[in-house]
Amino acid sequence: MRNVIVSLLALAAVAPGEEAVTVYVSLDEEHSRPVLEVFEKETGIKVDARYDTEATKTVGLTRMLLEEKGDPQADVFWNNELAKSIELKVHGVLEPYDVPNAASIPAAFKDPEKFWVGFAARARILIVNTDLVKEMPTSMWDLTKPEWRGKVCMAKPETGTTATHAAVLYTIDVARADEYFDKLMANDCVWLTGNAHCMREVAAGRFAFGWTDTDDCYVAELQGKPVTAVYPDKGADEAGVLFIPNSLVLIKGAKHRAAALKLIDWLLRPETEAMLAQSATAQIPVRPEVPAPAHVLRPQQVGKPMAPDWNRVGREWEKWVGHVKAKFAVAAADGKAGVKLGWIVASVAVIAVVVIIALRRMTATPT
């Protein structure tokens, strides 16, 4: 019934004879909507866009696409990362495509079987409050150091680029990834709802530093906040800097296939990558020839970019994110992983004292 209602609403929004396309988008609406509006103006194709939320980033729309597999409501999925696009491929939700502008995308950012193409990346970085930190961190392991206990943060690795980052670490070295998350929990790393939340908390000085993406850090810099970006783990024996591209996929059985291919090809233009690089989201072009502002650092400028096996990351995403969730469940039961058991107990004790005092006053006999 829900699919029928969605279909009727979509049809009602399109004038008779008007070309239209339905796209699900997990890139923040404030950054993706202006791009889609330009597409509408240039092509005359009506775009019906459905956006994700920060708390359910990518995962919510992926779940919806899986549920709609038998009767797809979307034509295109503009994913702000890559792993969940590959998961959709594994589950038979997608069909391969070939459009002219995919040809100039480097091979590292597209599927050899043509089910997905990546573009406009972001880097995983440490956002640092420069008022609170004078000696800059250089490694992801700095979040586990005793001197930063309870003073660092990151999004809980269950959705979005943080979950993909976790999955990448596990596909590289399971034991090392386990060690990292165990040490984060032991060091009272505070787990927040998303990368933007982490950015706001560090910018406000409530935490010294934490994980986020380059686009969120740049937003804080534009606002004049006392923050800077650190591209970590560039040493000889370190993991490297993770660059995560947006990805575009064509939904199998798309009701507006021709318009969908036009949208995908348009989004993959060098001009679109340049537009996203120039915007407040500061997306990083994957093509070296696409112009970008000086603050948008490319992998070759940063040095030591990671080279994940993206298809493996996508296939194993559920496994490793589920593994991390299980760690959180155990740690939460022990009063760790952001669950400040001491604070909870103290708060309950204070409330109990207040209630007891109030009851005594209510029952006390006037003199």
Molecular structure report:
There is one protein chain. By secondary structure, the protein is of the alpha/beta class. The chain folds into two domains: 2-121 and 246-296, 3-Layer(aba) Sandwich (D-Maltodextrin-Binding Protein, domain 2), CATH 3.40.190.10; 122-242 and 319-333, D-Maltodextrin-Binding Protein, domain 2, CATH 3.40.190. The protein is 43% helix and 15% strand. The protein contains 13 helices and ten strands. The chain has helices at 2-12, 29-43, 59-67, 83-90, 160-172, 174-186, 195-203, 214-222, 257-267, 270-278, 299-302, 310-333, 341-363, and strands at 20-25, 46-51, 76-79, 94-95, 117-129, 152-155, 190-192, 209-213, 227-230, 243-251. Strands 1, 2, 3, 4, 5, 6, 7, 8, 9 and 10 form a ten-stranded mixed sheet that branches. Helix 5 packs across helix 12 (310-333) and helix 6 (174-186) packs parallel to helix 12 (310-333). The longest helix is centred in the last third of the chain and has 24 residues, at 310-333. The chain is globular, with a radius of gyration of 23 Å.
Q: In a nutshell, what does this entry contain?
A:
The chain is 43% helix and 15% strand. The chain has helices spanning 2-12, 29-43, 59-67, 83-90, 160-172, 174-186, 195-203, 214-222, 257-267, 270-278, 299-302, 310-333, 341-363; strands spanning 20-25, 46-51, 76-79, 94-95, 117-129, 152-155, 190-192, 209-213, 227-230, 243-251.
